[in-house]
Amino acid sequence: MSFDELLQAKRLRPHEPTAEEIGDLFDRAMRDLQHARQTTDSQDWRFIAAYSAARAIATVPLAASGFRASGPGHHATVIAALPASLGPDALGLKAYLNQCRALRNRALYDEAHLVTAERVEELLEAVADLRRLVLTWLAENHPDLLPET
Question: Which of 19, 37, 20, 84 is nearest to 58 (CA)?
Answer without folding.
Answer: 84
